[in-house]
Structures are given as C-alpha cells and as structure tokens.
Amino acid sequence: MTPTLVQSHLPRTGASPRVDLCARARDWAEIQERMLVPLYEAVYERLEVGGGTRLLGLGCGSGLALLMAVSRGAAVTGLDPAQPERLALARGRLLPDGAPHARTRADTRLVEGGPADAVDPDLPAYNLVTAMQPIGCMAGDSEGLSELLEVAAPLARRGSPVVLAGWGPPERCATSSVLRVATKLAEPLRSTGSWRPALRDDLEKVAHRAGLKPDGSGRVACPFGYADVESAVRGLLSTGLFDAAVGATDQAQVDKELTEALHPHRRGDGTVWMPNVFRYLIARTP
C-alpha cells in the first residue's frame, strides 16, 4: 500500500491534488512502510533469500524491502520510476555516501527507469523478482502490472520465483473500514482510484496475464499500528489512496473524516491499532 500501499505502475489519470511529494515520501518511509515488514519477512523466509539471491524489486519505494534482503546477503536492484521521491529515500538508505564496503555498492543498484534499464550484461541473471506493493484495495491499482512483469520476467532465469502481494479479505482487514472514507468522498469523481474490496483471485489474474505460472501462496498478518491518530492520518495519506478524495473535496474534509473513521481503532493509551491480513503469490518465470 505500493504504490501507495498500492501499485503505481502507470501515471494516474485525472486531476491530482497538490501535495508535498517529498513530505509524503518521508511519511511513507518513516510511518507507513514498516507495516509491511511481516510480509517481507515471510516471503524472504519461504524463498530462503540469502547470499545466492539476485533480486529485482519492481516498485521498490523507499527501499525497506530491499534493505531487508541486503541484510540477508542478497544482491538487489530496485526501480520505481513512478515515485522518484521514494526512490531518492531508497538511495539514501541503500547507497549512502561513504559506504564502508565496496561490495555493498557493487551488489546494490537503484535504477531510474524501467526493467530494461536494470539489465547489466556483466552480471548474472536475476533469480527473484518482486512486486511487493500490495494491490487489491483500489480500483485499477493493478493496471500496467502484468505488462511490467512481462518485461521483467525475461531478465530472470527460467523458473525463477516472481512474488506479487495483495490485500486480504476485507473482513480480515480492519483498515478496510477506514479506506471506505476515500470511496465515499471521491464518489462525485467516480475515480479509478476509489477503494474496492480485494478479490480472491486478484493476484492470479495478474500472473496469468503476464504469462507466469502460479506456484504457491500465503497469508501474513500485517497490523497497522500508530503512536497516535495524527501519525495514523499522515501514514494513511502517504499511501496515495486518498488522493481522489482530496481532489473531490479538500484536504481539511479528508483529514476530518479520516480522523473520525480511525476513532473505533484508538486504544486507551491513544495508540491506533488495526489488524490486517495480506496475501502473497509466488509465480514462476517461463
């Protein structure tokens, strides 16, 4: 939610509200992105990501998933042309000035463009491709993903795993009730960015369109926990899921209704806690 805890594969259509994209990227990196750590850990554990892994991360955002793979010894390449502000933060995390080890720089690459720009004839083929920004909570959030995977798959060895992520059933995602605020406020625009409940075969449809063969799946608990309501609002807004609502109304209205929707999830100590389940699919390159 990525895009976004949603995918951002193609530019969004329609007018976009004016936002400070750098501030939003920081909110994503500092508040929201960590909510998906259990998902990243479950995938890496199942696939035994380690020193022999060459990972291509599509829509890598601000790089937390890549950083976790690097900590396991993997060589990683990340790209996110749709969100340069997040990619700049990933660069700071993964390629800091004065990195102590040359190997870290050589094995870690961040690409400004698309999958074709991730090709390096001097390096072995990738053996893992990930698209870890969950889809399935916003109408049209998988647009362009199959095409992106079609381009990326030939860069990996035959039979390599390709990982897709998505929201779980709405009845198991407490955040679904909060995301409905975006749909209600954006209704006058009937935007493709409106919330919708995840469907059981969202990930399989994307994989089949990309010519990939599904080969297993799993579900992971990813609760959204925030220090207070203000942090929760900032984190959720950083996903981009409320952009259409802001465009249809205004920022103050969205902030007000989002705060009200979070009230049932506020605990006695002021923290906000929303249990969620996310799903991942493992497919294989042809």
Please give a handful of descriptors for the protein shown.
single chain, 286 residues, 11 helices, 36% helix, disordered N terminus
Structure notes:
The chain is an alpha/beta fold. It has helices spanning 21-32, 37-46, 64-71, 84-94, 102-107, 145-152, 175-186, 202-209, 229-237, 243-248, 251-262; strands spanning 54-58, 75-79, 108-111, 128-135, 161-167, 213-221, 224-226, 272-274, 277-284. Strands 3-2-1-4-5-9-6 form a 7-stranded mixed sheet. A two-stranded antiparallel sheet has the order 7-8. Strand 1, helix 3 and strand 2 form a beta-alpha-beta unit. Mean pLDDT is 88; it is low at 1-14 and 98-105.
SSE arrangement:
Elements: H1 21-32, H2 37-46, E1 54-58, H3 64-71, E2 75-79, H4 84-94, H5 102-107, E3 108-111, E4 128-135, H6 145-152, E5 161-167, H7 175-186, H8 202-209, E6 213-221, E7 224-226, H9 229-237, H10 243-248, H11 251-262, E8 272-274, E9 277-284
Parallel strand pairs: 1-2, 1-4, 2-3, 4-5
Antiparallel strand pairs: 5-9, 6-9, 7-8
Give a short synopsis of this structure.
With 286 residues, the protein is an alpha/beta fold. It has eleven helices and nine strands.
Q: What is the terminal-to-terminal distance? A: 28 Å
Helix/strand-derived class? Answer: alpha/beta
How confident is the prediction overall: mean pLDDT?
88
- Beta-strand segment tally: 9
Helix content: 25-40%
Rg over alpha carbons: 18 Å
Largest sheet: 7 strands, mixed
